[in-house]
Amino acid sequence: MNPEQSTFENLVAIMRRLRGPEGCPWDAEQTHESLTRYLLEEAYEVIEAIEMKSTEHLKEELGDLLLQPVFHAAIAEQAGDFSINEVIQILCEKLIRRHPHVFGTMEIGDSSAQIENWERIKQVEKGAERTSALSGVPSHLPALLKAQKITEKAARVGFDWEHVDHVIAKVMEELREFEEAMASGDNDRMEAELGDLLFAIVNLGRFLSINPEEALRKTINRFQSRFQHVENSLHARGQQMSSTSLEEMDRLWEEAKKLEKGLSSAQTKKI
User: Fold this and answer.
1) What's CA 103's distance to the chain center, in Å?
2) Segments forming the whole domain that contains residue 58
3) What is the pTM of this model?
4) Which of 138, 200, 215, 222 is most buried (most C-beta within 10 Å)?
């Protein structure tokens, strides 16, 4: 094994050695279950690198993410279940089978038609496993993403609004019902109505082709950035947030928003 050889086969060989008798104790102790958290963490770090628009960061994080299926396959291979080559074989066969317009004679008009055809092929493949049009959505997806996937599947079989105005009206209806629940003081009812409101907002995002998970994550990033601006501005004056008026903190918050707009404008001009 050449440590300077950058090939997929070399990566697999390194992983086998790490799991072997003379390898790393930590790597050897891992199981499919223990690695679950790392699979999620690495996926989110790839997303962060994409949002940062850092090609160097993305290159590194994609490598970290690639390690996860190789790691899981090494565990499975030791148990006699399957190898990484079998994983790749199944993937290749699936990609060819689900793209008959590329590897076959079928003609597809646009990406929407391809999505519909992809779902039809999946339905045939899964057969009896799929008992509902909503089947196939992983149960452990983040709630916003899961809601989006479910509403997308419902829409594909015609269970959808005809116009965005109808979706907005539904959001407003759910907001009123949440306000009524708040007035009642019933916590269980408030929780149910808040869930309905969030679901309606996710549906609105889906209708407008806006990913709610991405939209919320970007909002969180903006909140953190603005909050830190307020903190840093106050610390520079020797002040603490706990002893500063809400009006002053709000002024600094608006200042942070203006700085964001100025930076965004400058970046646009460079492009």
Assistant:
1) 29
2) 8-95
3) 0.68
4) 200
